[in-house]
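yo, Deazaflavin-dependent nitroreductase is done. seq:
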Amino acid sequence: MSDDSSAAIRDTRKDWISEHRDMYLRSGGAQGHIMDISAVGGHGFTTHCMIRYTGRKSGKTFITTLIYGDIGGEVVIVASKGGADHHPAWYLNIRDSETVDFQVATQAFRATWREPQGEERDRVWAFMCQVFPAYAGYQQSTDRLIPLVMMKAIEPIDGFKASDATGERQY
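structure:
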């Protein structure tokens, strides 16, 4: 998929993405954790988390809502950007940090993160394609290897608030 095609998809979903994030934050995680995304190739019961990270250039704090899976107690997110030819900004930002904050429903954590390699990556990718089948098509549409990020909680933290974000979501 070209970056232009990816941008067109994001533009049509931008309002939904912002509304989803705002609902998740407003409710403290009581709403927004589970969403029906069957209209965009997902399942009726798809889990979402929020990640909070610092911009590597701006120094601003961002909160992004993403589909996730759980494998052996690690929360897995996919840096797909809809199959765009370049990585999403959130991935580039957390790649420059040792930790990332995430929230699942009403519980938030500081976490270490890693990218699975080799056979483990293959297994995790297959699992995430079951969580959100459109990932398989996204990978076919780009030459880049779509990164997987596995987060392991190291300590509980306060739940996210809209006021935590000093920057607007990076699409």
